[in-house]
What does this fold into?
Amino acid sequence: MVKLRIVLATAALSLGMAGVAVADSVTFGVQAPITGQYANEGQGMEKAVKLVAKQLNEAGGLLGKEVKVVSCDDEGKATQAALCGRDLANQEVFAVIGSYTSGATAASQPVLDRANILQTSDGTAEQLTQKGYNLFFRNAPPNSAEAEFTGDYLVNVKKYERIAIIKDHSSFAKGLGEATAAAIEKQGGNIIFDGFITAGSQDYRSILTKIKSENPDIIYFSGYYSDGGLIRAQQASLAIDADFVGGDANQNVKFAEIAGKAAEGSVIINVPAPANLPYPEAKQFLKDYEEAYGESPPSIFTLTNTDGMRAIVQAVQETKSFDPETVADYLHGLRDFPGFTGPLGFDDKGERLGSAFQAFEIQADNTYKTIYPQQ
Amino acid sequence: MDIFLQQLVNGLTVGSIYALIALGYTMVYGILRLINFAHGDLAILGAFIGLTVITGLAGSGGAPANWIVIVAFVLAILVVAIAGVLLEFTAYRPLRDAHRLSAVVSALGASMFIQNGIMLIWSPQTLTFPEGIMPATTYNFGTVIISATQIFIVSVSFVLMLALYLYVNKTRFGTAIRAAAIDQDAARLMGINVNKVIVSVFILGPALGAIGGLFIGVYYRQAVFDMGWIYGLNAFIAAIIGGIGNIPGAMIGGLLLGLFSSLASGYISSTWQQAIVFGLLILILLVRPTGILGERVANKV
It folds into this structure.
């Protein structure tokens, strides 16, 4: 029995070494919700990574090696995500793009880190970069970055003097609203009202009437588009003469529908939608994606994940190494890399630097026009 | 002062809608001693039917003509009234002689059935009403702004409530309804067709509720399939504080609830709005347990 085990172990080792020996290829792993409620996003991620791999191979590969892609479906669930992490580690991938949700990302982080595998994800929950995983890089700006951009925009750019903040009780909106309030105060702004609505309760006239009595020049709403649209419409019906600025969850075609005529002139702060990206490389990639798959990428996060992969590729090409630590060191020092979603860099915790946020104004025909930063 | 008046206007409008829906709860309770939990969902069914009619007849271009809006209201009332009668026949009539709790469970089940039915037939997403259903004119009194929609809702609600009050108190059939509410058996002995009374209550209540629901749709320009729960709960509470089973009580309860809600949010804190409103309601019930206009009803032992 023991002899059998030794034979099996030797066979496995030699197979493994054979795998290492055939090192003309490097494998990228995709961990994404390919099925389930976020399947749209997960499949977009997989397609985008495969497209980048294909383009690299057509240009001669990565440092001469063929780029392969394997995927694992985590269904957007933490339990599946941990299994995916193990699965991808067993397949000895070089780097993992994933996952779409913060929860699934957090579940696979420890597994991948122990297996010495680089990881990049669009999850925006703050704690993803606070656990000391040296090989993890967040490719989408976290909520705190949006708050800083908003604070800067409201106080320094638009110079509003009486800011009213409305949040709702969800953890996202509350977190974003509080962070924005702190950022506004840091910039020296004057907050004249800071309150909550109960999301979904439809009637916001009473809180708006109270805000009206404080004479704001801008109302900032950190919650979701379904309430944002109503707030904007009711603000107009109460003739409150103030600008409306909404956080990223207000960006949805429904906002303009719900707000009706009042939607025009509302400003929303978010990373740009793929179609609005101003960079020529982004536009080119969107065209390539459409050609390859016959559809547009589902969201901006497809592109941020692509940027994460491209940053890793850049790091490998510059350091001429596949050693994860070396690549990670390069990435920690990366600044102003021309990403599809804006200038990209990482700090020493793996947090994305370079804000890709924009403020866009809704036009009379319900399209968005970027008003800051000017292009 | 102007802020106070503005909050008053806001509160009255919302309160009128609550009152219309609360009337359905109170009438059914008066006759059957049953809380019709499905009533809130029937009310907002009116909003969805109205939306379908308006978008179907007017298409998507521009503001719908006045006649289209009227047709929408009429159809909403008709369909919801029929739904109300069907509800009575399927969910409540078979359980007339059963334990009280069975009817309550049946009511909850009916509520979920209607809610999910709406979700499946229309959409789980929020649906928007086209603009321009009501003229967008507003009237300014100082800094108080009253919109045409608000005037429309409040005035139509008051007219309807007055009409219902006169019907129940001054007509023969209204007397039959009141008699059946006091004692069904005695009413039957007096020659009143109690089944007819019950069916008519299930027509009147849901019809008013449908008008309230369509008002919600027009006022907020939105319809979501799970609105029925929130509005139903609020209207039910309004009926209780006014005195459940008492028709003027439901009207007062609805208006009070709307006013409390608006003033609490405006003057105390929007964060604690719900808590304050329900706290006030608890206070009212502590002082007057049967509600503001409720009568002490002797319990049969």
In short: Residues 360 and 369 of chain A are 5 Å apart (CA to CA). The interface with chain B takes residues 195-198, 200-203, 205-207, 209-210, 212-213, 226, 230, 233, 237-239, 254, 257-258, 260-261 of chain A (CB under 8 Å). Residues 17-22 of chain A have pLDDT under 50 and may be disordered.
